[in-house]
Amino acid sequence: MRKRSSNNLALLLAAIGLAIATPQAAQAQLATDVQCTGCVQSSDIEDGTISPLDLIPGSINTNTIANLSITGNKISGGAVTGAKIANSTISPAKLIPGSINTTTLANSSVTGNKIADGVVNSAKITNGAILLEDLNQEVIDAINAGGGGGGGGVTHTVDCVGATGDFTSIQDAVNAAGFDDRILLLSDCAEDVVIEDVDGLVISGDESNTQTQGGDHTLTGSILVDFGDVEIEYLTVTGSSGPGIWFHGNSDGSVTGVDSNNNVGSGLLVNLASTVGVEDSIFTNNGTGSYGAGVEVANASKVIVQNSTMNNNGNDGIGVFRDSFAYVTGSTLNNNGVESNFDAGFQVAHHSSVRSTNNTATGNGYAAIEIGGQSFFRSDGGDTFTAANDTCDFSGSGDCPVAIDIYRQGYVEVRGDSTVNGGTQDAAAQVFHQSLFEFRDTVSVTGDVSLGQLAFVRARSGATFTGGMLGCNNTTREGPGFSICRDQVNFP
Length: 492
Description:
Elements: H1 9-15, H2 23-31, E1 65-66, E2 69-70, E3 125-126, E4 129-130, H3 132-145, E5 155-158, H4 170-176, E6 182-185, E7 189-196, E8 199-204, E9 218-226, E10 229-233, E11 236-238, E12 245-248, E13 252-256, E14 259-261, E15 268-271, E16 275-279, E17 282-284, E18 295-298, E19 302-306, E20 309-311, E21 318-321, E22 325-329, E23 344-349, E24 353-357, E25 360-362, E26 367-371, E27 376-379, E28 384-386, E29 402-406, E30 411-414, E31 419-421, E32 427-432, E33 436-439, E34 444-446, E35 448-452, E36 456-460, E37 464-466, E38 469-470, E39 476-479, E40 482-486
C-alpha cells in the first residue's frame, strides 16, 4: 500500500496566502488601523487569536468556513481543499522542519510499496547504503511475509480427458480466471501453460486434498509466469523442452509440494527480478540440455528454498547468478553435475549471495559449493559440505573434487556447527584469485586447503582444522584466536 507524503507546513501557509508578520510590522499595522463596519480590527486580536466576541456578524459566513474545513474557493488555485485537511490529520507536531526535503524524496525514488511495515528503516541505512547482510535478512522477512492467501475466488476445474470439469485444458482455465481464482486439476494434462499479468492465481494438482509432494496429477510440459503473482502447489511437472516452471519478468509467487523432474532446462527458473518462495518440493534429473539446475535464480531475482530436495540434476543443485540472492534451509543438494563434472551443489557467481542453514551437499560433480565473481556465501550453522569421493591426489595435482571451491574474489564464511569434509582425497577447499575462506565457532574442517594467486584463509577461535595448508609459502601467522594463511605475500 502506498503511503501519502506529508506537506511542508511552510508550503501550506504560502499556498493559502498567509504571512507571519514581524513585531515591527504588527506595530505599524496597529498605528494605521481604521474603523469600518464589519471589519475585524488588529486591536481585536490578542495573542494571535480571534474570539467569537471579536467577530462582527456577517464578516465571516458559512461559505467561508464550513464544517471546520477550508474550502477551495478561499484558496488560490484550490491548492488546499477541505478534503485535504480533515480531523486534524496533519498537525504542526507531525511536520518537523527539515524532516522531508527534496533531497530525501527525489523523483519518486522511494515509493510506498518499497517501504512496508518498516521493512527498511533508518537503522538499516548507513551513509545512503543498505548493507548486504541486512538486505538479505530483510529479503527473507519480506518473502516470508508476502505470498500465499491466493485462491480465495472462484475454483475452476480442469479435466484434460473431457469426462468432467469446467475446462479441458489448463490454458483455457487460466484465460478465464480472475483475481484470486483457483485452478484444480482433475486429470493429467500435456501442454505448455503461459500465465501473464494475473495476480492471486493458484494452480493445484491436489484433487484429494491430502497435500502430498507431487500431488495427484502430472503436467507434461511447462508453466511460465510472466509478470504475475501465482502459487503452484502439489503438482508434478515433467518433460518440458525448457524449464519445468519459470517465473519471469518481475513476477512473484510460491512453489509448494511440487515435483519437477526430467526437464531439459532447470526444474525451476526464477528470472528477471522475480521473487519466489519454495517449500517441500523436489527437483531431480533436470538439466539434460546445455544447462539446467534443480533451481536456477538469475538476473536480480530472489528465492527462499525450505525443506526441499535438489538431487541428480545435470548441472547444479541450485545456481544463483547475476546479482541474485537465495536463502536455503533444511534441504539436500546431492549428486548434481551428472552432465558436467564442473558443477556443484551450490553454484554462486556474478555479484550474487547465498545464506545456508541445516543443508546437506555431498557427492556433487566438482564441489559442494562453487563460488566466484565477487559473490558471497554464508553458512549459519547445521550444514554439511562434503567433496565427492575420488582417487585423485589433491596434494599433488590439485585436480580433484573439493568440498568448497572459491575463485575470483569469492568469499565463503562458515559458522556455527557446520562441517566441511574433503572426502577420501582430503580436498576440503581450494581458494584462488584474491578470495577468502573463513571459518569460526565450532566449525570442523577436515582435509587440506589449497591456495594460490593472493588467496586468504582465516580460522577463528573454536574452529577445528584437521589438515594442512597447501601453497602458503611459509607465510602462516598465528595469534590469539586465529590463524591466517596468505599466499604469495609476506606479512610485514
